[in-house]
Amino acid sequence: MNKLAVDIGQQFVGNNPNLTDPNNINKITKSLIGGSLSLAGVLLLFILILGGIGMIRGAGNNDPKMVEQGKKAATSALIGFIVVFTSFWIVKLIEQITGLVLL
User: Fold this and answer.
1) pTM for the structure as a whole
2) d(Cα 78, Cα 85) in Å, to the nearest integer?
């Protein structure tokens, strides 16, 4: 198990654990952003499922308040994911226009 942790750590920073080196910081940042986008997708799915269940339960119990809460949860999850996804692509667009490597 320790071998895996060492391999993953060397993948990010190599044999030189100098975190002030821009290449190492760039690798770590890319990994964190990729993980954040994945986490945002998983959270979107989870909240959409819960919102859908809330809408179904509210409709089954003839409770418009519960249906509305489910709709709000699903809508908020979609808006949040769109904001995260759009911000990522705006940074990518800025990279293309300026030629800088931000991520």
Assistant:
1) 0.66
2) 10
Domain of 76 in residue numbering reads as: 26-98
Whether 88 and 102 have beta carbons less than 8 Å apart is answered as: no
Predicted confidence at residue 94, as pLDDT, reads 87
pLDDT digits (tens, 9 = 90+) for 78-90: 999 899 889 888 8
| Domain membership flag for residue 16 | no
State both tokens at 93.
Answer: 């667009």
Say how many domains are in the chain.
Answer: 1
User: 27: which 2 tokens?
Assistant: 């690798």
Domain assignment present for 78: yes
pLDDT bracket for residue 73 (50, 70, 90)? very high
Residue 20 lies in a domain: no
Ranges assigned E (strand) in 1-76: none
DSSP-assigned letter for residue 21: S
Higher-pLDDT residue of 44 and 31 is 44
Q: Has residue 21 been placed in a domain? A: no
